[in-house]
Protein 1
Amino acid sequence: MSKNPINGVVRFLMELGAIFTFGKWGYSLSNSWTAIVLAILMVVLCGTLWGVFAVKDDPSRSGKTVIPTSGPIRLALELILFGTATWMLFNLGFNTPAWIFGAVTLVHYAISYDRIGWLLKQK
């Protein structure tokens, strides 16, 4: 599997963007002090799902995992998290960033066809 450093940086920025969006969306759910709690909970939820469920020996990551996950499940998880972040941006009224984030996600996965093939073979 090729490791394009630019695509790796884009993926990392997408991960940060998704985590930030989850927090911003959580914060928007309340007008009181609970907004901060909801923001933190959403960041923890996104970060936990992203970091804990991984394919063992995934070369695009450290190769380590807390909960070994099949490749198709990991791919679905990634698409769900990035798709949810895109939806959250639309829900927050950030339409242009939502379109950009969604488009970058699609291009990233189109360019990452080798990784997708690898993930789909991991049981």
Protein 2
Amino acid sequence: MKLPVHRWFRYTAGFSAEWVKSVIMEHKKADSMILDPFAGSGTTLIAANELNLPSVGYEKQYFVRRIAHNKLRYDVNIEHLKKLYKEIVNTSFSDFNFE
């Protein structure tokens, strides 16, 4: 729960990201890939990303799957998004061709 990405949605069936990382580190090999057949809110997939390991997860429940999908985007470059936002705000409608 140290990273904000793990705190924005409390998943009751969740577990510690630090514990997941320790288990991955204990058992990983040079060409490891993480498979999480019950991905839940994405804790294991996020841990794999933080360890620079490829991962694949599956989750049947649509809502929880959407949470995991969005949490996996936690490393978005905020400064880039701010720049894009400013460009949009500073663009007048006359710059667009609506035809």
Protein 3
Amino acid sequence: MRPSRRFFEQPVDHVARGLIGAILLVNGVGGRIVETESYDGEDPASHAYQMRRTLRNASMFGPSAHAYVYRSYGIHWCLNFVCQPGSAVLIRALEPLVGISVMRRRRGTANGKLLCSGPGRLCQALGIDKRLDGASLLRKPFSLVLPEDHWPVQQGPRIGLTKAVELLRRFGHRDSRFLSRRFATS
């Protein structure tokens, strides 16, 4: 089922969990979402912390169901799905399914596990850059289909942060070999 804007207007953690198992294509290239992270305006690790708008995070305050694309550490592009104002879901990893030869060429590797495991790799494989910042997720070049069934989801702390590291806002498909990093087991 294709999502409506209403899906993205839910609390960001609910959206992040609900995207696990969804199929995401950009210009016909992509796969199954297997890992996400959620951020909102009350989260010290968020670009929209304390609901402060900047040039960089402007898309986080635009309409829901749009892309927020930014560069991380001046190197890698990251794709986020805007939810309620000041909140977004970072797409961390995909299981590659469609356009694998294009992804391999863009990434310069034949290793399927390394094509889309991590937000920077994912954006490189799908050809995502700043030009898609603010673009609607509900029309081309994006194609998004929500899972029909609930997928087994693990939840844990987000990766690579120095603030709010204790928050369990990383979601992943429990059995996927395409995660950017395995979840800690207790």
Protein 4
Amino acid sequence: MSEVKYMRTVKIDQEACIACGMCEAACSEVFSVSGNPHSKIVEEYRKDGDDQGEVPTDIPCLEEAENNCPTDAIDVK
């Protein structure tokens, strides 16, 4: 039987994002700022655009990225 992966929804408010890189520094498995005007979800976890995604719950750095964002542009549910 295969292991069931539980997912969390992640959204980046592109208007609030200032591309400071705090999210990428905290959680580069999920976030990328390099060469972009705003933070993006890495391709592996994208869903419905590069500012939204579904990320496995076993990636613990999501909360750190959300908490470190100085403009509260990251929403993890």
